[in-house]
From TrEMBL:
GO terms for biological process: chlorophyll catabolic process. GO terms for molecular function: pheophytinase activity. It comes from Eucampia antarctica. It comes from the Eukaryota. This is Uncharacterized protein. InterPro entries: PPH_chloroplastic.
Length: 100
């Protein structure tokens, strides 16, 4: 723990790259993606949700404590996090050229 100053857990892979029609993923997001992004972001950064994620990651509950959960949440308290999260959710998937 002394080697890590900050960690941010964010995984939008279930619907990442959905390529929402009519929006390129640029900020600021339109009304609907912004509202959905704000709702999901609020749920993900909830201390109960963070605790559930950590419980799934660690076999022993004593491997983490409330302080760690609050430190993880603190990473999400910057301005505009929900908008960035919405952009991640609905940005078009990356296109890679095939190297031959």
């Amino acid at each position: 723990p002394d080697l890590i100053q900050t960690i941010c857990l964010l995984n939008a892979t279930p619907i990442w790259g959905s390529n929402l029609p009519g929006w390129s993923g640029d900020l600021p997001p339109p009304f609907i993606p912004r509202k959905v992004g704000r709702f999901l972001f609020g749920n993900i950064r909830n201390l109960d949700t963070i605790g559930k994620y950590l419980s799934a990651a660690y076999f022993h509950r004593d491997a983490f404590d409330d302080t760690l959960m609050k430190q993880i949440r603190a990473c999400t308290e910057g301005k505009g996090g929900h908008a960035a999260f919405a952009s991640i959710l609905w940005s078009p998937p990356a296109k890679f050229s095939t190297v031959r």
